[in-house]
Design a protein that fits this description.
single chain, alpha/beta, Rossmann fold, 6-stranded mixed sheet, globular, binds adenosine-5'-triphosphate, ATP hydrolysis activity, High-affinity branched-chain amino acid transport ATP-binding protein, nucleotide-binding
């Protein structure tokens, strides 16, 4: 479905990704894990068109993504939920969600998808008229993911959805990601919570200093001695 090959990305003179290749197949959850600064967010920003690669290719089916703009990439169903949620704090939950359904292709489906988002996150239905800035961190993360779903993604890219959440909300977040996947959405998940992410993912890739150093099924990576030492502290 999504094929990234030999991706090279730099911020000015500082190269952040080196020859990064990976693929995400339809209906999978794929985890990208690695330490702070390994290049995970850079990878997602490049796929969604926010950064331009210096080299390499990105393909969604038979479409090339490298030269498309972020709105064109969203129209293809590649939707990025950025780290830090980026909500509009002075708008209500409902208004924030509706903003996710503004793309041309998404507009006719807004009411149906809003109902679906409330089904996945019943808490948001209860708080539809509350200002987003007054929600808890976990609730804000739900809005951010719900807003992503409003675009009708084929592939949903989540950047650190569990970051800064209380343990019980972390559990809930991973449960919701699984539910979204079971509803037919392919997921590319960036996480520093390596254990949880690999436990949930069908497959994963480990990034280190901008290089893919390991890949395998979630189970294989969880059993890998290097992953256990470096990322799980075992
Ligand atoms: P984190 O979880 O901390 O965001 P990450 O794996 O997502 O880590 P990136 O944010 O992709 O890592 O960063 C990869 C490298 O690129 C790091 O060395 C970082 O300092 C650098 N970098 C990221 N954003 C910029 C920027 N806007 N300008 C310059 N360098 C940047």
């Amino acid at each position: 479905m999504l094929e990234v090959e030999h991706l090279e990305v730099a911020y000015g003179k500082i190269q952040a990704l080196w020859d990064v290749s990976f693929e995400v197949r339809e209906h999978e959850i794929v985890a990208l894990v690695g330490a702070n600064g390994a290049g995970k967010s850079t990878t997602l920003k490049t796929i969604s068109g926010l950064l331009r690669p210096q080299g390499g290719t990105m393909r969604l089916g038979d479409r090339r993504l490298e030269t498309l703009t972020p709105p064109e990439i969203v129209e293809l169903g590649v939707v990025h939920v950025p780290e830090g949620r980026k909500l509009f704090p002075d708008m209500t939950v409902r208004e924030n969600l509706l903003l996710g359904g503004y793309a041309r292709a998404a507009r006719p489906h807004r009411e149906r998808r809003l109902a679906q988002a409330y089904e996945i996150f019943p808490r948001l239905a209860e708080r539809a008229d509350q200002l987003a800035g007054t929600l808890s961190g976990g609730e804000q993360q739900m809005v951010a993911i719900g807003r992503g779903l409003m675009a009708g993604p084929n592939i949903l890219m989540l950047d650190e959805p569990s970051l800064g959440l209380a343990p019980i909300m972390v559990e809930e977040m991973f449960r919701v990601i699984e539910e979204i996947n079971q509803r037919g959405v392919t997921v590319l998940l960036v996480e520093q919570n390596t254990e949880h992410a690999l436990d949930l993912a069908h497959r994963g890739y480990v990034l280190e200093s901008g290089h893919v150093v390991l890949s395998g099924t979630g189970k294989e990576l969880l059993a890998n001695s290097k992953v256990r030492e470096a990322y799980l502290g075992l």
